[in-house]
Amino acid sequence: MEHMTRRTAMAMGALPVLGAAAAYAGGEHWLRDDAGGRPRFARTDAGSARAALQQRDLPNVPLLTSDGDRVRFYDDLVKDRKVVLTFVSSRAPAFSSTVTRNLAALQRLFGTRIGKDLFLYSIARDPERDSPAMLRDWAVWSGAGPGWKFLTGRPADVERLRRALGFVSDDPAQDARAAYAVGLLRYGSEPEMRWAHCQSQAKARVLAHAMLLDFGTGPADPASPIFKAFVKGSAPGAAPVWNCRLLLSGLG
């Protein structure tokens, strides 16, 4: 992990996306869940690149929030949203503490925009070890507010999700270490099919800078620290929420 650069991590994130588009571009594949119930994905455009990404890289596995709510990964958490995805594990306490501190810093920076335009998800790397009650305590310790969820699920479902999202290493010994997955962060805009990886252990301002390059600009929330940092005289309606200069000065 210590030898992984952001460029390398970004390249890792692109591989499953490109593979999905190539594998599914030629046709329609509508998988159903194990119980034979509702379709695994809501219908978009059959054979489209977005449908390909859904089926290959964003599996609609069932998950459980730390509050006890049952959700589907794609339908309820990712579809039509900008999201930040991370893993946490009690087997990697130092790495997990760092990534949750970084997410807490981003939550403070974006204020009430979290839960509206941007969503944070921290997933248990070892669901058989880290119970919903433990995740709930972790959420309280991290100061997680609306829009930041801690999630777990059946080990097989979480493992499938981890691999589909690209939180894996080709080295089996490295991949077995919880710190590897916890050390990565994936973010993206699902409707735009724009995704990237970076290191979750980087400084929060570095993570924010990486995200703004991909997410672009949008209106600032008057209650957020970003809005308050604008120079007097700025037009509130035109104030960008993803602003490099302000982000770098607003975070440590």
Structure explained in plain terms:
This protein has helices at residues 6-24, 49-57, 73-78, 93-110, 132-142, 155-165, 172-176, 178-182, 204-215, 225-229, 244-250, and strands spanning 62-65, 70-72, 82-88, 119-124, 148-152, 184-189, 194-199. Helix 1 packs across helix 2, helix 4 (93-110) packs across helix 9 (204-215) and helix 9 packs antiparallel against helix 11. The longest helix is centred in the N-terminal third of the chain and has 19 residues, at 6-24. It has one domain: Glutaredoxin (3-Layer(aba) Sandwich), CATH 3.40.30.10. A seven-stranded mixed β-sheet has the order 2-1-5-4-3-6-7, with helices on both faces. It is globular and about 40 Å long. The chain is an alpha/beta fold. The protein has eleven helices and seven strands. Residues 1-44 and 230-234 have low confidence and may be disordered.
What letter string, H or E per element, gives the SSE order? HHEEHEHEHEHHHEEHHH
CATH level 3 topology: Glutaredoxin
How many domains comprise the coordinates?
1
From the spread of the alpha carbons, the general shape counts as globular
Query: Total number of β-strand segments?
Result: 7
Number of helices: 11
